[in-house]
Amino acid sequence: MIDKLAWIRVENGKILTARSRNRDIYYIPGGKREAGETDEQALRREISEELTVDLIPESVQLLGEFEAPAHGQPAGTLVRLRCYSAEYAGVLHPSAEIEEMQWLSYADRHRVSEVARLVFDFLHQRGLLTGSLVAAAGL
């Protein structure tokens, strides 16, 4: 089991995603805890390293936990993603291993990892993520 944290940032019906160098799909920004870190500490560190912004501590809220097969890992490897929302200060800019950021709609669901697809579904069902899969398929 791969245990990860993710920052959910939705604006104008789209979610912020990131693509690491040498990867072909987008992920929800975040990462793994280091020894002794709380979820909030790890998430704040990861987002600062990857996207050069500071999450505002008093705004961090748990949104949910999602589990699916891990992309690019041996069969049977699962990833558990604990997702948090938070306000931020600073200017978003890809850094460290992040090659690019993208704001994706629900129609872009096919461009993300399996666990991120569950998050897309969750947000779409709540009316937060716009777009339709029918439109994406050209039907």
Automatic annotation (TrEMBL):
InterPro entries in alphabetical order: NUDIX_hydrolase-like_dom_sf, NUDIX_hydrolase_CS, NUDIX_hydrolase_dom
This protein's UniProt keywords: Hydrolase
Keyword Transcription regulation tagged: no
SUPFAM superfamilies linked to this entry: Nudix
Record has Repeat as a keyword: no
Start and end residues of each Nudix hydrolase domain: 1-128
Cofactor: Mg(2+)
PANTHER family, alphabetized: 8-OXO-DGTP DIPHOSPHATASE-RELATED, GDP-MANNOSE MANNOSYL HYDROLASE
Protein name, UniProt field: NUDIX domain-containing protein
Source species taxonomy: Bacteria, Pseudomonadati, Bacteroidota, Cytophagia, Cytophagales
